[in-house]
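**User:**
My hope is that you can spare some time for a protein that puzzles me. This is the protein in question:
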Amino acid sequence: MQKLSFAEAIEKIRQQDTRYAEDAYYFMREALDSSMKLYKKPQHGSAKDRHVTGQELLEGIRQFALQQFGPLTETVLEYWGIKRGEDFGEIVFNMVEIGILGKTDKDSRTDFAGGYDFHDAFVKPFLPSKKAATEKRANPLRQQSAQ
């Protein structure tokens, strides 16, 4: 059997599962690479020997997404059909089932359950701090005179 290219594999996945945009799979591949660099240093063997847990991957995805999309992260992910951590798990396991990614016997979709609240993870980092908002409301003339 001929090995599928990444693009062919994603096309095949999406023929059976249309919940997530094609771009979500490309993003996941990049987020996984970023997460592996974040959590694992190459030890003995190749980079293929490295493995991250579902929770480590969720945190790596969060950091990578914020770096890539900034305050638009939640909007981009929602556009791709991703609304919760479990969606990342579904994408990962779609990739596992078609042979793009590997897994250990301990890995499961439930590793992505819970995770984080998307608003807290992707919107709050860009909201003004309470202290800054309070100072601005308390003394708006001071803000104008500083300009």
Remarks:
- Residues 6-145 form one domain.
- The mean pLDDT is 86.
